[in-house]
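Inverse folding, one chain.
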């Protein structure tokens, strides 16, 4: 019921910047959190950044370099990535958490985008 589409990935040299965008469609009013995960080849998928209500969470490895923001009206989340390092190379996945229903019958769901490749060369 929620679809996520990422854009903005690409190839960049170490020290460069990229800005990822993720647009949500469908039942966007049910979304209460959006963020980004990444997965490098042969590695597990790890949280990069998450924004929920007025708070944000960033992985220690990206603190000071990445910034997450969300435009609720446009159902879009962004990830500004600065000072990129080769170890940032991964597929980046947009994530959304949704919740709906009354307190006596509460539903939750997670949604994932298709992923966008970020490659940082040295």
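Residues assigned per position:
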């Amino acid at each position: 019921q929620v679809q996520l589409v990422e854009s903005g990935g690409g190839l960049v040299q170490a020290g460069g910047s990229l800005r990822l965008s993720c647009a949500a469609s469908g039942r966007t009013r049910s979304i209460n959190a959006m963020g980004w995960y990444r997965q490098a080849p042969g590695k597990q998928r790890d949280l990069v950044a998450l924004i929920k209500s007025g708070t944000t969470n960033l992985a220690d490895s990206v603190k000071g370099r990445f910034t997450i923001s969300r435009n609720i009206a446009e159902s879009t989340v962004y990830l500004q990535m600065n000072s990129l390092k080769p170890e940032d190379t991964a597929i980046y996945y947009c994530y959304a958490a949704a919740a709906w229903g009354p307190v006596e019958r509460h539903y939750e769901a997670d949604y994932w985008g298709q992923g966008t490749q970020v490659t940082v060369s040295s």
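The mean pLDDT is 96. The radius of gyration is 15 Å.
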